[in-house]
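Reopening this one. Same input as before:
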Amino acid sequence: MTPKELAIIAAKALDEKKGKEIAAIEIADLTTLADYFVIASGTSNTQINALCDAVEKAMKEQTEETLLRREGYRDGTWVLLDYGCICVHVFSQEAREFYGLERLWRDGRPLDLSSVLTAD
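Same output, byte for byte:
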């Protein structure tokens, strides 16, 4: 599977668990960290953990990608799921505004997810 397809699978999993403000940014031309960042917000620590669990389940069931690292799971304000070619960031709203990944990586190309996400 391509990194773009993996990013879409992650975005769908986040959407199915009612993640908020789901976005994906292609950063392959800007860094070697990953090809895509997928970013979402959760409304509580419990929902943030459920969103991460949903991504892990979808990636395990639909792809052959292995989770390389998970950071911040216990804190529940910013969880990072690193799959190598994609990194999934799930934030509380406050942490997302504070860290501003979309602002930091604004030179990346947004991935249009309108065809995969349900309208709020």
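So the earlier flakiness isn't reproducible anymore. For the record, The beta strands are 20-26, 36-42, 69-71, 78-82, 86-92, 109-110.
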